Amino acid sequence: MSEHFQHRARKRFGQNFLHDAGVIHHILRAIHALPGERLVEIGPGQGALTEGLLGSGAQLDVIELDFDLIPILKHKFGAVPGFALHQGDALKFDFASLNPEPRSLRVVGNLPYNISTPLIFHLLEHAGLFCDMHFMLQKEVVQRLAATPGGGDWGRLSIMVQYHCRVEHLFNVGSGAFKPAPKVDSAIVRLVPHAVLPHPAKDHHLLERVVREAFNQRRKTLRNTLKALLDSDAIEAAGVDGSLRPEQLDVAAFVRLADQLSDQTLKHAAEQPNGV
Predict the structure, then answer these.
(1) Which of 6, 89, 109, 189 would be 142's cystine partner, CB 3.0–4.6 Å?
(2) By the 8 A CB rule, do 228 and 216 touch?
(3) In the chain, how many domains are there?
(4) Which neighbouring-strand residues pair with 130?
(5) What's the CA gap between 170 and 111, in Å, rounded?
């Protein structure tokens, strides 16, 4: 590559470029893109995965925030059929603007650690558009995504992602696979949105609220941490023991609590005089 197209990783974008050919091959095998599929790559960087994804014959939209990487990507892939480049912030990107069929988009990304959690929540808002998502993330984030109730990794991220998706921790990636090498290890995770939610909440916004309140003080009992939303009787009516800590509850239990709050809110609204 000519000097004109050299690029140094930028700290403010959390950039660590993947360069290990063996790891790249392993990731591409896990994704297993096929001709005619519609993929979206978030943060392609210098195109380590992009080349292999395009080589599959899939149609590929890439979203890149760093202006300085745009000419590199255009130079490498601009003439390749099926390649479309979007300069912008994936946190603000409207995935529906790609006009996909429901459950048709496949999302791929080596996500910067500083935006991984908010970006995942942004993607969950559009979960009905996606067939699956494959991400490179900080290993401890993947451990939280794939956690089970009862341990310290189980929390808001685990519950809200598992409410929407099946989670598979595929494999770990050492820091030496990147330039510059990050100070932490990474992992590849596969998220597959449920075709039918196993535990549908009456109002998923209330579910988010209950989960957020519960884990704001995760060492306290539910009776204490949820008292602004649900009293002890309401928690018991949801079939939940108020003396438990939030990390001891599974997704279904949190949905029951959220549905109890939904019923309580509707009942309170119905009891109000008109115009109040």
Answers:
(1) 189
(2) no
(3) 2
(4) 105
(5) 16
199 within some domain: no
Q: Are 200 and 254 in contact (CB under 8 A)?
A: no
pLDDT along the chain (276 residues), means of 10: 43 59 92 97 92 96 94 96 96 94 95 88 94 95 97 96 98 78 86 97 96 95 97 97 97 98 89 65
Q: Which domain holds residue 33?
A: 3-193
Q: Report yes or no on 276 lying in a domain.
A: no
CATH number for 46:
3.40.50.150
Domain boundary among 161, 193, 225: 193
Together in a domain, 145 and 242: no
